[in-house]
């Protein structure tokens, strides 16, 4: 039988092999009860006569229905909607000078990983394309135990102290009285909270940027967010920030597109990840670190412990030390993606925490949430969670305990069990917390070094391209436009003046309001009862770095079209050579093509055998593709020009700034659209239209280069086409 889930051969399959012990497959087997009894009739319950009542004795029915009744578990309180994949991490640069973590020592070492990407606010069945931050969790199954890097696709966070996390999440989740809106932040409670918490403003800039609308989970960055520590054999420590950089670059869709994708295919990201892995196009990320010597802890104009700050790459470059490859889809969504339990506190010797107060709170929250979500302190025994490193301790019993611990003793110290299991010396891999000296008073407070709330929000905004800035303005206008309470809009617009005056003015214009003067209330309302409000107000600061290239997506990787989805519109009378030649060029360059026609089945070209259609206009939509091509063929082009769905397809692709190509008579279809009118009015309906990403009667290679550009946002300037 063909292995339906192959993994590439040179990767470390230790975890896959481990999981195999728990897999089950009914192929060629009898149907049984959960207790192994073969079932003779799975169609009818046991009754008192053919038309009689069902008997309580029917253990088969009771077992089946009882199990069904209990199939659901609570969804994650945040990050409920997620998609996972297996893979491996390969180290390329030894980190020995900085850390004793074994998986970071020898270049070439491969460590199995399981990764789960997620949105934050929506429920388990919500759309993938919500405007939201994305979770980026990686579980490394190292030989020394599991290491979890539980990050996001944004390098900073909304709040500085875990004390505010439940408030933040209550504010962003659907409002409690009517449970609306689903998976979106465009509502009063979220912006009310933000308007009173200036520390959220840097993250708001990211969340309103196109980063919150990834084209693909495979095309987004990941960040550990907090400053962590690395600790070496000599017990010397450095600070570290972790980065994942996607090999395919960082790309986004437009907001209009995102909303339409949510209707056409709300599983768009999950499907994209699944199909890429299934077709052997394994997603890859480079793994990078920013290392800061302990002696430099106070050298920056921000506090390394403040999770609303990033370290600009101009100050500390990211060193790439390895690569992660995702090469295997899960066998079972629930068993793997749903039951996987991440925790920033799952670390290995050589990695340690900083005092970031957000991180410190997380260290409590994650085990706690698994207890309610997975229902037992034995969640570490669930196959996807159990380490490949051996587990021996004196923890016992509890719901659903799987391990059969043998022997008489379950305590330490003991003599009955020969003192086993032993504690490990540091030299034997025993974990020793980094022994940082602490000399402090107990105090419920926030460091004044955390009070600069705007300088990096401004840095982020200034680092964006013009198009990216436009999108941030539009996003804020959308989100604030959805609010019912005018006062919240005013407070946010004032807050935006602290980031950038022009940003505030532009957003205000769209909302039809004037930029308000400074409010009478102190800007920061997150103040202890006995606190002096003056002392809690943002410190005016200007970042010494004015622009940071890494913060913009404009300069990302744009040199290939691997895994890009290209629609080819055709019907009877299409020129087969034109269609197949372009298809071949695109596929040779790594893209995937689909032939879309008015109906499924086959279309008859004007020269040759019938061509199989992949999708009809009914199930396809331009928002599900990266580019569109119309081949030559008089009859085909004329027929498509009469198809409203074909016209809409082209217009929408144009509106969303995607590469468009047409050859021969195919150009007539473009001409029949509003997009064609735009192209002509720009006087660019020839080869010079390349600048707009439109390749009419050009070279196939020009179309390939255009697709690689991802989007021609320039087109937005000349106004939208109706689509
Ligand atoms: Fe969290 C899940 C990322 C702050 C409490 N978080 C969760 C997941 C990600 C993050 C990616 C999904 C894990 C998965 O795929 O199963 N969280 C972050 C980042 C944060 C952050 C990058 C800030 C830098 N989180 C944070 C705080 C708290 C939590 C401050 C609480 C004090 N997070 C949770 C949680 C979740 C969770 C409630 C829900 C499901 C889970 O843990 O397993 O415990």
TrEMBL record:
InterPro entries: Catalase, Catalase_AS, Catalase_clade2, Catalase_clade2_helical, Catalase_core, Catalase_haem_BS, Catalase_immune_responsive, Catalase_large_C. SUPFAM superfamilies: Class I glutamine amidotransferase-like, Heme-dependent catalase-like. Residues 32-420 form the Catalase core domain. Keywords: Heme, Hydrogen peroxide, Iron, Metal-binding, Oxidoreductase, Peroxidase. Its cofactor is heme. The active site is at residues 79, 152. GO terms for cellular component: cytosol. GO terms for molecular function: catalase activity; heme binding; metal ion binding. It is an enzyme of class 1 (oxidoreductase). The keyword Oxidoreductase applies. Heme binds at residues 76, 116, 165, 362, 366, 373. Decomposes hydrogen peroxide into water and oxygen; serves to protect cells from the toxic effects of hydrogen peroxide. Belongs to the catalase family. HPII subfamily. This is Catalase. It comes from Haliscomenobacter hydrossis (strain ATCC 27775 / DSM 1100 / LMG 10767 / O).
């Amino acid at each position: 039988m063909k292995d339906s889930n192959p993994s590439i051969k040179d990767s470390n399959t230790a975890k896959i092999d481990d999981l195999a012990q728990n897999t089950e497959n009914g192929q060629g087997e009898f149907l049984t009860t959960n207790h192994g009894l073969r079932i003779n009739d799975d169609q009818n319950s046991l009754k008192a006569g053919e038309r009689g009542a069902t008997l309580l004795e029917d253990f088969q029915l009771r077992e089946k229905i009882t199990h069904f009744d209990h199939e659901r578990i609570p969804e994650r309180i945040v990050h409920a909607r997620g998609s996972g994949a297996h893979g491996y991490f390969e180290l390329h640069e030894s980190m020995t000078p900085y850390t004793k973590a074994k998986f970071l020592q020898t270049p070439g070492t491969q460590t199995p990983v399981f990764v789960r990407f997620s949105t934050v606010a929506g429920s388990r069945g919500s759309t993938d394309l919500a405007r939201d931050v994305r979770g980026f969790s990686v579980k490394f199954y190292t030989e020394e135990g599991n290491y979890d890097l539980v990050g996001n696709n944004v390098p900073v966070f909304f709040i500085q102290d875990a004390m505010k996390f439940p408030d933040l999440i209550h504010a962003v989740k659907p409002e409690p009285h009517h449970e609306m809106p689903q998976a979106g932040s465009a509502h009063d409670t979220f912006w009310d909270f933000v308007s009173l918490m200036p520390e959220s403003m840097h993250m708001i800039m990211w969340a309103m940027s196109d980063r919150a609308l990834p084209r693909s989970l495979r095309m987004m960055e990941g960040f550990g967010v907090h400053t962590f520590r690395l600790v070496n054999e000599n017990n010397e420590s450095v600070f570290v920030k972790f980065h994942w950089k996607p090999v395919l670059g960082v790309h986004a869709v437009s907001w209009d597109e995102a909303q339409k994708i949510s209707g056409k295919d709300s599983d768009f990201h999950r499907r994209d990840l699944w199909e890429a892995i299934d077709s052997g196009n394994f997603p890859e990320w480079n793994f990078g670190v920013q290392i800061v010597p302990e002696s430099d802890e106070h050298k920056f104009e921000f506090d390394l412990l403040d999770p609303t700050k990033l370290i600009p790459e101009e100050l500390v470059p990211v060193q790439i030390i390895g690569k992660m490859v995702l090469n295997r889809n899960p066998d079972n969504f629930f068993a793997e993606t749903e039951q996987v339990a991440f925790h920033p506190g799952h670390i290995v010797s050589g990695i340690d925490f900083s005092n970031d107060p957000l991180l410190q709170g997380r260290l409590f929250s994650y085990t706690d949430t698994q207890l309610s979500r997975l229902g037992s302190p034995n969640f570490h025994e669930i196959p996807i969670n159990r380490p490949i490193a051996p587990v021996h301790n004196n923890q016992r019993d509890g719901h659903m305990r799987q391990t059969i611990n043998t022997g008489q003793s379950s305590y330490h110290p003991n003599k009955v069990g020969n003192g086993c299991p032993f504690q490990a010396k540091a030299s034997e891999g025993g974990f020793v917390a980094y022994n940082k000296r602490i000399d402090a008073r107990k105090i419920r407070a926030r460091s004044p070094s955390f009070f600069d709330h705007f300088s990096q929000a401004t840095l982020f905004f200034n680092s964006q391209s013009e198009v990216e800035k436009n999108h941030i303005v539009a996003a804020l206008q959308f989100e604030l436009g959805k609010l019912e309470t005018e006062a919240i809009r005013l407070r946010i617009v004032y807050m935006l003046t602290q980031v950038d005056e022009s940003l505030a003015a532009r957003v205000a214009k769209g909302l039809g309001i004037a930029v308000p003067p400074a409010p009478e209330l102190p800007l920061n309302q997150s103040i202890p009862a006995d606190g002096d409000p003056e002392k809690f107000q943002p410190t005016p600061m200007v970042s010494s770095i004015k622009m940071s290239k890494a913060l913009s997506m404009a300069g990302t990787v744009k040199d290939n079209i691997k895994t890009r989805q290209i629609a080819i519109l055709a019907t009877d009378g299409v020129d087969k050579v034109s269609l197949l030649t372009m298809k071949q060029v695109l596929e040779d360059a790594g893209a995937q093509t689909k032939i879309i026609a008015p109906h499924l089945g086959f279309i008859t070209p004007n020269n040759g055998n019938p061509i199989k259609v992949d999708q009809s206009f009914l199930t396809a939509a331009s928002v599900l593709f990266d580019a569109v091509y119309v081949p030559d063929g008089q009859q085909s082009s004329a027929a498509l020009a009469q198809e409203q769905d074909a016209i809409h397809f082209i217009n929408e692709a144009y509106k969303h700034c995607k590469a468009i190509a047409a050859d021969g008579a195919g150009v007539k279809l473009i001409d029949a659209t509003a997009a064609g009118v735009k192209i002509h009015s720009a006087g660019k309906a020839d080869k010079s239209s390349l600048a707009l990403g439109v390749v009419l009667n050009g070279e196939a290679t020009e179309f390939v280069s255009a697709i690689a550009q991802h989007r021609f946002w320039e087109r937005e300037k000349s106004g939208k086409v109706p689509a």
